[in-house]
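hiii so um. not sure if this is the right channel but i have a protein structure encoded as tokens and i wanna go backwards to a sequence. like what aa goes where. can anyone help
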């Protein structure tokens, strides 16, 4: 009976904690446009919680009035929001300004992709560094068996969530690399395509990450040229 009572109290405490939780939600946009930003790092500085905006720019992070939430993304100026009761009641949009590229000594030695890649690694250190994991809530109201089981379950959930985010970031990094090798300016220079024609061509003939990793610059040039010939055939 004692264990049943203890477990019931634990569940009640957990339910009260869950009911008291509040979340700041919304979308992250590029300032001055309707474009959303994926994988923006959201950091509750006050409570040391972390999250990422998803594929359509949406975010959700546990917060309370008075908490300071930092939004940061490589290539954009970071922004910090102080949570108030009013912004917890509805979706709160965040707008990040694009950071102007500056020519530094480092950029002479490294290309923009390499520098951005290193910046992204720093930005998402809380995902990659397993010793600095996001904070997950667990109920502690004694030393009963139920508490230990609850902590273990949360630890497992945190590890799975970090693994999911790490895989997602690795996939996005591959897409950034393809964008670097198969960039708009280079394709336009070779094909002379512009506007929607250029956009459609690049989408239709976008090379794979594996190909881009193995291909030399001349291979990319030949690939684009061959694809352009195929693209123009229906128009002849």
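sure thing!! here u go:
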């Amino acid at each position: 009976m004692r264990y049943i009572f203890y477990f019931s109290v634990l569940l009640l405490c957990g339910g009260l904690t869950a009911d008291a939780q509040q979340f700041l939600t919304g979308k992250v946009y590029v300032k001055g446009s309707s474009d959303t930003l994926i994988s923006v790092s959201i950091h509750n500085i006050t409570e040391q919680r972390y999250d990422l905006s998803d594929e359509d720019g949406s975010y959700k992070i546990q917060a309370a009035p008075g908490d300071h939430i930092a939004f940061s993304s490589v290539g954009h100026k970071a922004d910090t929001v102080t949570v108030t009761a009013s912004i917890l009641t509805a979706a709160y949009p965040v707008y990040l300004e694009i950071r102007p590229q500056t020519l530094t000594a480092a950029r002479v030695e490294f290309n923009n992709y390499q520098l951005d890649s290193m910046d992204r690694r720093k930005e998402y250190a809380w995902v990659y560094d397993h010793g600095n994991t996001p904070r997950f809530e667990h109920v502690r109201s004694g030393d009963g068996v139920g508490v230990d089981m609850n902590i273990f379950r949360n630890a497992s959930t945190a590890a799975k969530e970090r693994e999911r985010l790490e895989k997602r970031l690795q996939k996005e990094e591959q897409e950034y690399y393809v964008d670097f090798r198969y960039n708009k300016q280079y394709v336009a220079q070779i094909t002379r395509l512009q506007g929607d024609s250029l956009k459609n061509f690049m989408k239709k003939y976008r090379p794979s990450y594996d190909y881009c990793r193995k291909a030399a610059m001349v291979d990319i040039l030949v690939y684009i040229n061959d694809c352009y010939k195929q693209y123009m055939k229906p128009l002849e």
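oh and The beta strands are 23-30, 41-44, 49-52, 58-62, 68-72, 79-82, 94-96.
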